[in-house]
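Question: does this match?
>
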Amino acid sequence: MGAEQAMAGLLDRKSLPDRRSFVSGAAAGLLCASLAPAQDRLAPAQDRLAQDRPAIAGEPPRYDQRPLSLIPNAQAIGRRYWAPGLNEGYVPQGLTVTGAEILVAAYRSVDPRQDNGLARVFRLAPGDGRLAGGFDLPEAYGHPGGLAARGTTLFVANSGRLLALDLPTSLRSGSPAIIGERRVDKAMGPSFLACDGDALWFGPFRRQGEATLYAIPLARIFEGGSDPLGPADAGRRLPLPLLAQGASFDRSGGLWISESAGNRQGALHRLDPRSGAVLASYAAPGGIEDLGCATDGRLWAVSEAGSQRWSRWETFYPLVFEIDPGRLIARG
């Protein structure tokens, strides 16, 4: 049959109901739906995921639309803020609380094989998580694992290095105002820091063997020439849990240690500050890094799980978050 005859036949029968026309019409509809733009078909799913995310201060990650992971001891978590710099590729590491603000140190990397990069200290207002400034760190501090503050001095840890900054001047100028710098024996890390009275505590990250937390008097840190600070400079030592990522002293002098390694569940440990004995352990979000303690006694922590570098982890919790120690439930 020629094309003209076929068309004429169709026109002659156009007023007759034909079951095949309904079938073909339905098929066409399905085809059009399948050819709809991907973003139109994904929109409901994205809307649903967005609804699964509670309202959290800060800039949410645009590269990953997952809802936050369910975490252990959720009843103890208070305020939560998106970790700063996530969309620019920053991986949060160090944290400390000083005065009325939270400081977070992070380095830029989106590659699981790259563990350092351009590093920056971000300043957050604790009341609402608002980004209130910050400054870049020197190139040698490409993995700033820990922060600690004493008065107006901010200490920054990077394996084999310690940096001391004038914090008010650094925040005011937007550039690091360096007070001093010291090399450190890598036996002490420092992977993280904590300040207690007149001593700065140095902690290494260790996967196996034995780990030790070292306290060095602040007065000795920038004395003694150019030799690296080492275990012999420590006035006190405490045994340290393996996989430790951060430390902080609370208002009563108690010592808290965070533990994490990759995508596994994290932990918090409360230690006797005199002997280092573990008094209690608590399950914590995976990827937990450094710790700080606010004047109200609440702990603050940050997790790298869900940063762009670690976006393939099952755990998605790239937050700065508050912890009420009194609501933690210890492991059995």
